[in-house]
Design a protein that fits this description.
single chain; about 260 residues; alpha+beta; five-stranded mixed β-sheet; 6 helices; elongated
Length: about 260
C-alpha cells in the first residue's frame, strides 16, 4: 500500500470514527432530553394527581361533616328537645322544692347542650362558611375569643372583594382558629395579630403572629399537633407555608396562595 493510499484510508477511518462519536453524542443528548421530558411529564401528572386527591379529600371531608351535622341536628337534637320538654313538664307537675331545683338544673343543662349542639351542627354543615364572606367569618371568630378575656386580638385586612371559594375560606378560618388556640394554650402571649391581604402579589396572604415565648424549631421536629395541622391545611389548597419563631420572640406563621395560572 502506497503512502497516499494509507493517508486516504487513515482520513476515512478518522472521519468514520468522528461520525461515530458524533452519533453517540447526539444519541446520548436525545436520550437525556427524552428522559428529562418523560420525568417532567411524570412530575406534572403526579402534581395533577395529588391536587385531584386533595380536592377529593376536601369534598369528602365537607360531605362527611355535613352528614354528621345533619345527624346531630335531626337525631340527637330531637332527643335532647324531648328531654327538655319532659323536664319542663315535671317542673310544673312536682311540688317539692328540692325536686323542682333538680329538674330546673336538668332543664338548664339540656338547653345549654341544645344550643351547643345547634352551633356545632351549623359549623359542620358549613352553611355558615358558605353564606358569609371571609372577613365577616374572622370577625365573628375573634368576637367569640375576645369574650374569654385571655388575650388581645387585632385583625387587619385590605380585602375589597373577599368572595373566596369555600375551600379557601374553610382553610383560612380553621388555620386562624388553630393558631389562636395554640397561642392561648402554649405561648403565654398577651397579643395575637392577624393580617389578611390581597389580591395584588398573591390571591391572598395571611399573617399570624403572637408575642408569646416562642420555641426552638430544631427542638420541635413536629412543631406540635396544632402547627402540624396548619401546615397540612395549607398543603391541601396549595398554599405556601412559613413558620418563624425563636425563644422569647413569639411565633409567626405566613400562608400565601398565588393567583391561578
Amino acid at each position: 500500500m502506497g503512502k497516499t493510499e494509507f493517508l486516504v484510508t487513515l482520513i476515512i477511518f478518522n472521519l468514520f470514527f468522528v461520525m461515530f462519536v458524533v452519533a453517540i453524542v447526539v444519541y446520548i443528548n436525545k436520550y437525556r432530553l427524552r428522559k428529562k421530558q418523560y420525568l417532567n411529564e411524570m412530575r406534572l401528572k403526579n402534581e395533577i394527581h395529588e391536587k385531584e386527591l386533595l380536592t377529593m379529600q376536601i369534598e369528602i371531608q365537607q360531605a362527611t361533616m355535613q352528614q354528621i351535622g345533619r345527624e346531630l341536628h335531626d337525631n340527637i337534637g330531637q332527643k335532647l328537645t324531648l328531654v327538655s320538654l319532659y323536664a319542663q313538664q315535671l317542673l310544673h307537675e312536682k311540688k317539692e322544692e328540692q325536686v323542682n331545683d333538680r329538674i330546673e338544673q336538668i332543664s338548664q343543662i339540656t338547653n345549654e347542650s341544645l344550643e351547643d349542639l345547634r352551633n356545632l351542627s351549623r359549623t359542620l354543615t358549613d352553611d355558615n362558611i358558605s353564606n358569609k364572606d371571609i372577613v365577616t367569618l374572622i370577625d365573628n371568630e375573634i368576637s367569640k375569643i375576645k369574650s374569654l378575656h385571655k388575650c388581645k386580638i387585632s385583625f387587619e385586612n385590605n380585602l375589597k372583594n373577599s368572595d373566596l371559594s369555600f375551600s379557601h375560606k374553610n382553610v383560612l378560618l380553621r388555620v386562624i382558629q388553630e393558631f389562636i388556640q395554640n397561642s392561648m394554650k402554649h405561648s403565654e402571649c398577651e397579643n395575637i395579630f392577624i393580617k389578611l391581604t390581597g389580591p395584588e402579589a398573591y390571591l391572598w396572604k395571611l399573617e399570624l403572629k403572637d408575642d408569646g415565648k416562642g420555641f426552638v424549631q430544631d427542638a420541635h421536629k413536629s412543631n406540635g399537633i396544632g402547627l402540624a395541622n396548619i401546615r397540612k391545611r395549607a398543603e391541601i389548597i396549595g398554599a405556601e407555608y412559613e413558620l418563624t419563631t425563636a425563644p422569647n420572640k413569639g411565633t409567626a406563621i405566613t400562608l400565601k396562595i398565588k393567583h391561578p395560572s
